[in-house]
Amino acid sequence: MKICIIYHSETGNTHHVAQHIASAFDAQLVEVTDTASYNRLTRFFVLCKMARCEEKTLIEPASVDISGYDLIVFGSPVWAFKPTPVIHAIIDGLKGCMGKPAVAFLTHGGRPGQSDETFKKWIEERGMVPVAITDIHCTDIENEKTTKDLIALVQSSIKV
Ligand SMILES: Cc1cc2nc3c(=O)[nH]c(=O)nc-3n(C[C@H](O)[C@H](O)[C@H](O)COP(=O)(O)O)c2cc1C
Fold this sequence. Notes:
By secondary structure, the protein is α/β, with parallel strands linked by helices. The chain is 37% helix and 26% strand. The longest helix has 16 residues, at 144-159. 37% of the residues are buried. It binds flavin mononucleotide.
């Protein structure tokens, strides 16, 4: 069973969770970053507006070929109650994704809003099958039970 974890993380929380899953399953980790430049003063508001409007941004890598994997795990922070423009852009840029089962997780500060349903919609739009979507409060990132639960969720998605 080959698992590819594709994630975006600005301040490390989502990265941390992605690493836990990667270690548990010996999975491939792909970090996607934003290559656009932003004004330092307006950055937060611009990013929130882009996320809220479900926009995409310039990313590196621009595309990932996932045809060789059996399960894809997406990880994203919540921005303005949605997954980020980075994760939206990479979902849009995937190659070989048709029919692939996908698990998604979000990390957030307490108000995930419409992130789950938005993630599900983007995954389905690319012809993938959303098997499970979950969110994790940033204060639970180091919580052993949260990590175990997430690993169990991925494990159960393998059997689907
Ligand atoms: C631009 C921005 C917008 C955010 N919007 C939300 C939000 O709407 N709801 C929420 O619960 N947390 C929000 N947060 C907090 C992040 O979702 C949370 O800290 C997350 O774990 C960060 O992940 P990272 O460390 O992987 O970047 C926001 C953070 C940023 C920087």
